[in-house]
Structure formats: structure tokens, C-alpha cells
Specification:
Elements lengths: L8 H6 L7 H9 L3 H4 L14 H8 L1 H9 L6 H4 L8 H12 L5 E10 L2 E11 L2 E12 L15 H20 L6 E10 L13 E6 L2 E6 L13 E5 L1 H9 L13 H14 L29 H10 L22 H7 L28 H14 L5 E2 L1 H8 L6 E9 L15 E10 L5 E8 L8 H12 L6 E3 L3 H15 L7 H11 L13 E2 H8 E2 L9 H10 L2 H7 L5 E2 L4 E2 L30 H5 L12 H12 L4 H33 L2
Parallel strand pairs: 3-4, 9-12, 12-13, 15-16
Antiparallel strand pairs: 1-2, 2-3, 4-7, 5-6, 8-14, 9-10, 10-11
Amino acid sequence: MELFKHSNYQKAIAMQNRYLTKSRFKLALTCLTQLYYAGKPTEYADQSLDDEFLEALAKGGYQVGELAKYYVSDDPVQEGITIAASDYYSSLKETEQRLSRPGKVVIAEAAFRFKNLFVRTDLVVRDGDTLHVYEVKAKSYEPGEEFLNKKGTAVLSAWKEYAYDVAFQRYVIANALAATGLKIRTYLMLVNKSQVTGIDGLNQFFKVYADGRGKKVVVKPGLRRSDLGNQILIAVPTDDVCDKIINDYAAPTDFSDTMTFEEFVWKAAELYQKNERVFTPVGSKCRSCPYITGPEHSSGLKSGFRECWEHATELKSLERPLVTELWNGLSGARSFADELVHLNKHFIHLVDEQDIAAKNPKEKGIPGLTPHTRRMEQINRVKAGDNQSYFDAEGLKHEMQQWKYPLHMIDFETSAVALPFFRGARPYEGIAFQFSHHIIDQNWQIRHATQYLSFEVGAFPNFEFVEALRAALSNDAGSIFRYHNHENTYLNLILRQLQASTIGLPNKDQLIEFILDITHDGKDRRGKRDMVDLYDLVLRYYYSPHAKGSNSLKAILPAIVAESDFLKSKYGRKGVYGIGLEVKSLNFDDHIWITAAAGNNPYKTLPRVFPEYDPETLDLLVRDMEDLADGGAAMTAYNYLQFSEVPVSQRESIRDSLYRYCELDTMAMVMLLEGWRAKLEI
């Protein structure tokens, strides 16, 4: 069996960086233009997080990959199923040699090439005349879940990335092995979310370590399939889906409406090999473009984002806000940026009210700004060049009249990984490992009152967590504040865990009653002390141009600071915030939150959790996780402590950083309320 001709070896080496690989194919599906910017770190800025170690920590995907090997091999380490060679030629040659062996053959990281298409597969098993190809993904799957829409005319958006990935591999392998007569069967190996693990510390069998700027997963010595308990991964056949993608469906690309899968593959391969660029339509997809220079960027690198928009607008300068900055929240599947670009309106100042009018307007009767009027506040301020914020003083005063003192600010840090830490847990079952809690009393005296952090490897903290939270919040009937849905979501998760638990908790009923009292379920249940959502108050009563359409706390805090002399005066000097000072802290001796050196952004005054990574970079790890867009640093640090062997001194340093970061999240809520109160001149 010959996977390639040796006479082409030198040519392959010369062009080896121009193969269309799995990762490049995935990039092309996202945006064909980005193929041109990819792999040019000395020419184009690249904000993408290309760090295998951090990715492994954040989502456990590499651990899932190692676990999957034990479902096709009893002892993959002893059997040496993994091809370690990293270069194209060696990996192709070794794959060819192994597949030529008699009997059943199991290979991890097998390599296949067809012309200038190249893939490395997670797992292949050759059994008789059939080659079983497994693409392993750390994505949750409920047995019976469908990949296609009800009509069978397209892949569901939630599965598009994964289905097209395995289809691309099937296409390359089938063509590479066409002369062998082997039948190709493809599968997605996914995380079975309905399954529970029967052992404790499953994640501890696969430790993650940094290896330069990459990662390595070290498997427990002597580990065998029989040590892993029941199987928590499921192999889902994808032959039918791949056939439809390759033979029936138009390629899901905005480059062309009629291009077939095969045409798209070869177009992408040609563009990448020739290093040519085509411009695809700009729009909402550009919000996640990594080839962009930030406001503080001074490396001299070019911005692919800027070049695309300059081409689309036929302008050499983009000095006014683009429609990608227009707030798109609470609009369902609708994309205002895409609609406006279609109208040839690339800048916010060109947008008219009818352009963004609700298609089916509904009056909800909720006081304050509606999503539509909030967007118009942003548009009108851009048109007028007005940097003054919108502030509904009367509306906010009315809300404040409902609050009961003392006011409690709470913030949670959580994790949810593929391999469960504990016996009886399901994959991606949430873990609440930390909270911070600030109190504002009737006289607006402020103190960081309590905090909690689970620091033990392999411990299940959720019940202890809520017990500590109950102790912190049950001394009075004061109003409790959160920012967005995360805290409510996790308390409801812990509620279900408590209700299902058979552990003999002496105060189980009290913990359940506490959670019911301070949460709601999104249906009919709403606790008597249901938490106040500051995010909701921001949406209805406050818009700041400084936040540029974002309403995350990390954007809103520097926005309120920028327009508040009160906050800058109070928190821009020593002797105010710290242990035993005017505003009492549990973790800072004497901290200045607002400094010119940090751009008047309190979040930039903290030392990094990991010295080599800034917090914004770590947040990229969780940007696709619901409610976790600002929690990347904390979650990564917690998972690092769970997955890796960490020296005591480093554990203590990470612990101290986690305390400070979480304390700032609740202090940010305090400063937001103080800034509003100063505007109200109370």
C-alpha cells in the first residue's frame, strides 16, 4: 500500500507548510479570507490563543483524547499505538508501514495525504477490510441526538464544525486509500453526558504538563482499560452525515452559495498553496477575527481585520465605529451587523432607525430601555459624536427604593470539564469552587466580608460551597446582587445535585430552602429574596459609549470609572482600600484601583495568575462557554491545580491570585453602584 510516491518527497518538503490540513480547513470554513493571514506571525497580528497547554487545562480535550485510546486498545502505552513523528514525511511513512502489517491494527495520529490535502487522525482501527476512523471531540452528546435538521437538508449549527471536520478526513482518507479497497467507516467519539463515572479521580489518570509552549499528557504508569470503570465516551457513526456533506449539500461558506463540498475543499487548498487571498463578505463573523491589532498594539504588524473592512468599504481609513460594535443582545438569531452590511451600511453613523426596527415588535411593559431603544441610544450618540452616557436617574431611583440594606454583592468562579473528578458525577457537571462577597451597609460603608475557595485536589466542593454562602448571606434579609445569570444558573445546578444526593447531609433541607429563596427557575418559581441582576439594570438604565457596545462587567467598570470623578478621587489614592482601611479588604494591604498607568482600569492593576498570560488571553479559552466569558483565568487556574503536579509555592501563589481576582469582581459591582449613586447625587 503506497500512500505517497517517494519521488515527490522533495517537492512535499518544499511545500509542506502549504498543505490544507484539518485546522486550515476548519479556518477556511469560518472565513476563507483568514487562510491568507494564517501562519504569518511576522506580518499579521494574531490574537488567537494557540496554546495547547492552556486549551488542555480549560476544557480537558487532550485528556479526552488520551482516554479514547483506551476504548480501542487495552494498553495503548504498552502497545505503542501513537505515531510520535511530527513531520509530514515520517508520519506518512510510518502510517503506511503500520497499515501494511497483518491482523488488526490500531493507530493514534495516523497520517494521510491526497495531493496537497493532509490529515492526522485521532484514531484509526483497521479490522479486516474496513478502516474505522474516529475523530475524538471533548463535546457533550446525548444518545439519540441528531446532527441534521428535521428535514435532513443541513447540518445543525451546533454540530457543523465537528461534522465537516470528520467529512474532510473521510474525503482525504478515502482518496488516499482508493487503490487499497479498504472500506472507510467514520465516527465522532464524543463525551456521553448521560453517563456517570464509576470511579473517583478519573482526571488524575491523565495529568497535563506544560512542555515548552505546548502540552503533554502523562498517563498513570501501568494504566489499563479495566482501571477506568464504565465508558463515558460514545462512538457515534457519521457515514450518512459525511455522505450528505460530500455529495449533497452546498458548502457552508459565504464565498459562494452554490459551491459543493469538493469544490470548496480544492478552492481552499489552491488559495492556501498559492498564498492567494480572496475577500469574503464582512459582517458579524469579524467580531471573532484574531487577525486584528488592538488599541495598544505597537509591534508594526498589519491587521487582517482592517484590510478586509477597508476593501469592503473602499476606504483607506476606518476612523468611525463599525457596525460590528453595535450591541446585538436580546435579538435571538438576528444579526444586525450582517443585515446592515447587506444594506451597504458598514458604519454605525449611517444606520437609520428603520434599519434595525424589530420585525415583530412586542411590548413587554418592563421599565427602562428596550433592546431597540438601547441600540438607538448607541447609534444616536455615534451620529452626534456624543461621549456622554445615557443614565435613567428616575428609573434607577425607583429600583433602589426596592432594595433592602445591607446590600450583598456576590460572584462565583466555576469549572466544568469533560472528565469528572468524582464517582457518580457526569461529564461537564458544574463545580462551584470559589465565591467573593462584599457588603454595603445603610450608611454606604463597604467591606469585603467573606470569601470561599476550594483548594483541595479531587474534592467535590459544591455542597460545602453553598453551605459557606448560606452562612455569609443569612445574617440579615438584605438584597443580594449578581452580575448576569451565572450565579443563578449554578445555584440551581447545586439545588438539583442536593435533591438527588444520597449523602447524609444534616442540613440538606436548609440548604435547599436557602437556594430556593434566593433564585428563580425561569418559569414560575421566584424566591422571596431572589437576587438582583446588575446586568439587567445596566441594560435598562445605563449606556456608556466608553463600553463600545459591550455590557460585560470588565467593560462596564472602566466605562463608569472614565466618567466618574468620584470614583477616580476615592480609589485613585492610597489609604482607602485594604486590610483595616476605609474600605476593608480580606486580600489587599493598601491597593490603588485607579491609576493612569493601568489606563484607569481596575482589572489591569492586578498581577497575572500565570505570569506569561494576561487575563484577556485566558478569557479567550471560555468565550464559547455560556456565562463564562470573563472567567477564563480563574477556571484555568483551578483546573491547573486539579490536573497537574504543582509545587507548594506555586499553589499558594495561585491561591492568592484567585482570591484577589474574585474580590475585584464583587468590588467592581460595588464601584458600579457607587458611580451610579454619585450621578444621582445621593
